[in-house]
Write a structure and sequence with these properties.
Elements: E1 5-11, H1 30-38, E2 40-46, H2 52-61, H3 84-90, E3 94-99, E4 114-115, H4 144-147, E5 150-151, H5 156-178, E6 184-189, E7 198-199, H6 201-204, H7 227-235, H8 245-276, E8 282-288, H9 307-310, E9 311-312, E10 314-317, E11 325-332, H10 336-344, H11 359-362, E12 372-376, E13 385-390, E14 393-397, E15 404-407, H12 425-438, H13 441-462, H14 489-496
Parallel strand pairs: 1-6, 1-8, 2-11, 3-4, 3-6, 5-7
Antiparallel strand pairs: 2-9, 2-10, 8-10, 12-13, 13-14, 14-15
Helix pairs in contact: 3-10, 5-8
Length: about 500
Amino acid sequence: MDRPNILFVMADQMSAKALPFYGHPVVKAQTLTRLANEGVVFQNAYCNAPLCGPSRTSMMTGRLPSRVGGYDNAHDFSSAHPTFAHYLRLGGYRTCLSGKMHFTGPDQLHGYEERLTTDIYPSDFGWTPNWADPDAKVRFQDMQNVQEVGPCLRSLQMDYDDDVNTKAMRWLYDRARDGAEQPFMLTVSFTSPHDPYVARPEFWDMYDEDQIDLPRVPPIALTEKDAHSARLHTHYAIGEAEISAADIRRTRHGYYASIEYVDSKLAELVKVLEETGLKDNTILIFASDHGDMMGERGMYYKKCFFEWSARVPLIVWAPGRIDRGRVAETVSLVDILPTFADLSGVSDEVLETDGTSLLPLLAGQSIAPRAVAGEYLSEGVSEPTFMLVRGRMKLFYSETDPPLLFDLDADPDELTNLAANPAYADTLAELETIAHAQWDAKALKRQIIDDQNRRRLVNRAHGIGKRPHWDYQPVEDASQQYVRAGRWTVEVEAEAHLDVNN
């Protein structure tokens, strides 16, 4: 395969379980559905951390979060870790980021040559958890975002995502008219449909309230919850709020409308590819960093390994280049780096990755069987928690909690814990052996606490005197825009003119 352009589009907190081509009965998502019908859908794709920052660092480095210090939403993403942007640059690609990637620390590029927008969240260490103090709370979400839902004309997220897409579209138009032979990789990363679940009226009105489905799995009593779910119940203050069926329906309404908003942005990007002719040599990949529980089991947001939180959409669309189809093999976001390295032709470089290139699967071949891993190492817990998915079996593992084992084929709603079932004793033992070999939970906990303590000290020091600003500052050189000294209007306009279908 030659080196195609790559358009990598990301959503935030979009669960595969909420999309029609994964079986959801209500959501429309017309553009995503089109890409799914014309492209390759990975039916069983998982994030490697059900939290924004760790998931994105893990994805970009192709390593599990614990291997690169990606513990939480305020971790220091070291510049010494190669990302897929670095590998693509080695392969001759021009790399650009428009939107959210949740970089924390002074490096706000991590291999991208260009960045068109700032991030929506802070780049300092202020959101660092504190596992050393059991009473310390780092709470980014409570039930307010479930109780205060509805249509609105503007929101912070709309301001951000509109900017992200406008700049990305202009960048694509510039590539279509600059005539350069260099392939590009543009990442367009939206913060929607992350809560708050609000949307403009035109998206809200795509659904009637009585159309909205309620969770398949009703709330589970606190006394019957597994240990991690019980912690999240307290962490999100779920028990402090009175949540009715109408509240849940309205929250889902807002979430579905926000998915439609992202879908409309994706439609605009696809239109640019098609009308400029870039589509003929561009692979579009769509993914999300993690999902959202959406009231299933009486749980909300993310930070757990149940399917609504951990399973993500993954679509590859390149009509005429890659045959459409569905891939059943279990994959994860750490597979994106080796896939991009493969596409760029630099996969023979020193490649440290916990993932596997997906190109064989895109070609209708197979990859070696494996267990896909996930980690949660942030606020709401004080011990490392892990996930392993091998085929139809999924294990939730912690050295302090009883194990959970589910057969996803027989029990897609994850209601029956098979860990104590003698018929699954061998399966449990095999997966626990993999977990023990992969993680030293006690040593990892010590590393996490030491790292948190260092970052909290730095953050306190930065609060004294003049605070450093790591947030990315987009720079536009107006002296090089439009018509400037020494040039004629017709000359500049001739260079900027882009014919229909290029």
